[in-house]
Design a protein that fits this description.
Oligomer: single chain
Structural class: alpha+beta
Bound molecules: flavin mononucleotide
Strand content: 15-25%
Radius of gyration: 17 Å
CATH class: Alpha Beta
CATH architecture: 3-Layer(aba) Sandwich
CATH superfamily: NADH Oxidase
Largest sheet: 4 strands, antiparallel
Helix content: 25-40%
Shape: globular
Length: 169
């Protein structure tokens, strides 16, 4: 798929075909897409856990109880490392930005593979950190279901380009 088509086809999907497995090759392509994500000072302060295990997925689902999350054959849990990340001149860590870029690489690569995802941040964070056995300086920042979507994405309206860009010549 052409890169710009991938960008347009990437949507948040909230319904998945539980019976369709994720091909190993797609998984490898997605992992390699994450591997080459940029990060401040190339610190790569992230880790992604791809959970196929049903029991653990159920526990993750208890932190974000929408039925469609568990329809997908996998849930990806993205975590950031606040100890090794680059820190801005003002002292704030860049870990969440870095993790977000890598996560979006994952999401776009999934779209290129014909797979659906949905960024999720509205989960119970402390509970999910505990379930994933993650503690400071690491923190779970986002999750996504990963699988073949069987639902239409929600209708949406994008801001006009003029609202997004200021072009100064
Ligand atoms: C940082 C972030 C957090 C999000 N958290 C959630 C969430 O908790 N639940 C959800 O259903 N969608 C979530 N979304 C998906 C957005 O609602 C979605 O990206 C937006 O409405 C645009 O739709 P699209 O992704 O289909 O283009 C999140 C997206 C981002 C980027």
């Amino acid at each position: 798929m052409d890169f710009y088509e991938v960008l347009k086809n990437r949507r948040s999907f909230r319904g998945f075909d539980s019976s369709r497995a994720i091909p190993q090759k797609s998984l490898e392509n997605i992992m390699q897409a994450v591997q080459c994500a940029p990060s401040a000072c190339n610190r790569q302060p992230w880790r992604f856990v791809i959970v196929f295990n049903g029991e653990l997925r159920k526990k993750i689902g208890s932190c974000y109880p929408k039925p469609w999350l568990l329809e997908a054959p996998a849930i990806v849990v993205a975590m950031a490392d606040y100890s090794t990340c680059w820190t801005r001149l003002e002292g704030t860590p860049a870990a969440e930005i870095d993790m977000g870029i890598a996560m979006e690489h994952l999401v776009l690569a999934a779209a290129a593979e014909g797979l659906g995802t949905c960024w999720i941040c509205a989960f119970e964070k402390a509970k999910l950190n505990e379930i994933m056995q993650v503690s400071q300086p690491w923190c779970v920042e986002a999750i996504t279901p990963l699988g073949y979507a069987n639902s239409d994405p929600r209708a949406l309206k994008y801001k006009d380009l003029e609202e997004i860009f200021t072009v100064i010549k």
